[in-house]
């Protein structure tokens, strides 16, 4: 099974650039074309939040228009730049299978990996949270099937990653979430977005990873002083669930360069 994870697309109103500099709509269109033309094609695409830049209706409509070009099913969750109403009004149905917009969390049962979407947003805040209601919901869903390999996707990583967005901003309920996660060894990974740079780390018996953004990469500063982004090619992650039951994550950059070169196989010389 192949899962393409795209994140932090920050789509602006049609005809504009994000923060007047980042061509995020163009980047997403390039990325979608790349995903559609890849061989093998991903089975599904997960968009882990910050779909829009300001949560405007026009931005959601623009995002939906771009995402409609995907040739495979896709699923969305909100990030702190979105709002639940906008996500639900735009994507309810196949891309966001929830019956109301209290929380945008749901389970996808149709694949070799069981997929659980978790809503980590707090209205009008950039911080993340898993409250008691959401932790209980997750615990119940995980208890329904504690053997099938499971992947959780959410916007905010629940660990401090050495960046302002996790170390100075906060995640409310980290312990609460960790206590649930630790009960279920069948959780292969928790894949997130939010910090616009790829990381992976061991956490409470599983792996937490983040995907890069669609072209607005965090300028890393472990001193937590600078909060800037740099422009890069749209980048996404391809999670490959192998026949050996390993979840292998490849980071794919959708560059302009198409030249490729053969590796030369190394043949040891006989020592005379
Ligand atoms: Fe973001
Ligand atoms: Fe975010």
Short description:
This protein is α/β, with parallel strands linked by helices. The protein has helices spanning 24-37, 57-67, 84-91, 132-144, 164-167, 174-181, and strands at 2-6, 44-48, 74-77, 106-108, 114-117, 128-129, 150-153, 171-172, 187-192, 199-203, 206-210, 216-218, 229-231, 235-241, 247-253. The chain has a 6-stranded mixed beta sheet with strand order 4-5-7-9-11-10, with no helix packed on it.
How would you characterize this protein structure?
With 272 residues, this protein is an alpha/beta fold. The protein has a single domain, classed as Purple Acid Phosphatase, chain A, domain 2, CATH 3.60.21.10. Helix content is 21%, strand content 24%. The protein is built from six helices and 15 strands. The protein has a six-stranded mixed sheet with strand order 4-5-7-9-11-10, with no helix packed on it. Strand 10 and strand 11 form a beta hairpin. Helix 1 packs parallel to helix 2. The longest helix is centred in the N-terminal third of the chain and has 14 residues. The mean pLDDT is 95.
């Amino acid at each position: 099974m192949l899962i393409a994870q795209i994140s932090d697309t920050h789509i602006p109103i049609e005809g504009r650039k994000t923060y007047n500099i980042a061509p995020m709509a163009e980047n997403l269109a390039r990325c979608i074309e790349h995903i559609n033309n890849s061989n093998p094609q991903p089975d599904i695409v997960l968009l882990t939040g910050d779909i829009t830049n300001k949560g405007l209706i026009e931005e959601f409509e623009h995002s939906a228009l771009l995402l409609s070009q995907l040739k495979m099913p896709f699923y969305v969750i909100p990030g702190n730049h979105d709002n639940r109403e906008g996500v639900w009004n735009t994507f309810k149905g196949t891309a966001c299978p929830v019956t109301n917009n209290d929380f945008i969390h749901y389970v996808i049962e149709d694949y070799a990996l069981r997929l659980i979407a978790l809503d980590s947003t707090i209205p009008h805040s950039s911080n993340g949270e898993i409250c008691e209601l959401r932790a209980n919901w997750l615990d119940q869903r995980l208890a329904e099937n504690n053997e099938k390999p499971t992947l959780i996707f959410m916007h905010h990583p629940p660990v401090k990653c050495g960046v302002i967005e996790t170390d100075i901003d906060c995640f409310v309920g980290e312990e609460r979430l960790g206590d649930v996660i630790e009960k279920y060894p069948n959780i292969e990974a928790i894949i997130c977005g939010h910090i616009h740079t790829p990381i992976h780390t061991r956490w409470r018996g599983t792996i937490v990873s983040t995907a890069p953004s669609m072209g607005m990469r965090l300028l890393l500063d472990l001193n937590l002083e600078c909060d800037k982004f740099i422009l890069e090619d749209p980048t996404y992650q391809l999670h490959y669930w192998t026949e050996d039951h390993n979840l292998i994550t490849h980071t794919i950059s959708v560059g302009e360069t198409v030249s490729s070169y053969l590796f030369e196989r190394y043949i040891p010389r006989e020592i005379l």
